[in-house]
Design a protein that fits this description.
By secondary structure, the protein is mainly α. Helices cover about 70% and strands about 5% of the residues. It has 9 helices and 2 strands; from the N terminus they run αααββαααααα. A two-stranded antiparallel sheet has the order 1-2. A hairpin with a 2-residue loop joins β1 and β2. α6 crosses α7. The longest helix is centred in the C-terminal third of the chain and has 22 residues. The termini are far apart. The mean pLDDT is about 90.
Length: about 190
């Protein structure tokens, strides 16, 4: 215990979080999870637990949206895996990969649209149109998602090879993971 205590107090901040993530993932102990969550909230930490990882998202509504998308049923497994990968990239410590987290987030949208449209080769625009034919969606909402997808195609090579250094920051990556998760959940709710 003394050796662990000395390591703990001498470790870098992210090493402590990495150890706790390891313990969360390796134990199926809900009490441990609840206690860690309790202390994160009580101490006003900038992190919360999502998929056994510490993410810099503290709003309970945002956390719920991302958690729901990360635990979709098997028929939506491709979209679920994109969200889970986005979470992992977003929460990587000490060097989060915001660019690829954004890429995975928007890929979840493309994936869910293709699944619901029943066409694995459809472009996002075609898949959204097909979804709209089945269950009407407000044109502004369809357009917003298309524009968000377009943004990822233009923003410093988010979905394509880099042409310059990526300028995606935490706020942008957080927005994308939350917005894309919410849209994925919306699509699933509409389709089922």
């Amino acid at each position: 215990m003394e050796r662990l205590k000395n390591w703990f107090y001498g470790a870098e901040w992210y090493e402590v979080y990495n150890l706790l993530e390891y313990l969360l993932a390796s134990q199926a102990n809900p009490l441990f999870h609840r206690r860690v969550s309790f202390f994160l909230e009580r101490e006003k930490s900038g992190y919360r637990i999502l998929q056994n990882q510490f993410v810099p998202i503290t709003d309970s509504v945002e956390l719920r949206a991302v958690a729901d998308a990360a635990s979709l049923p098997s028929q939506f497994s491709a979209a679920r895996e994109h969200i889970q990968t986005a979470i992992t990239l977003f929460s990587r410590k000490p060097q989060p990969d915001y660019r690829n987290s954004v890429k995975e987030s928007i890929s979840a949208v493309e994936s869910i649209a293709r699944i619901i449209a029943g066409n694995s080769k459809a472009t996002l625009g075609d898949a959204l149109k097909s979804m709209n034919d089945k269950t009407p969606m407000h044109p502004a909402l369809r357009e917003a998602m298309s524009k968000l997808y377009g943004y990822t195609s233009d923003a410093s090579g988010v979905r394509h090879s880099l042409t310059e250094a990526s300028s995606i920051d935490e706020a942008e990556a957080k927005f994308m993971i939350v917005a894309c998760s919410a849209f994925v959940n919306f699509c699933v709710q509409r389709a089922t």
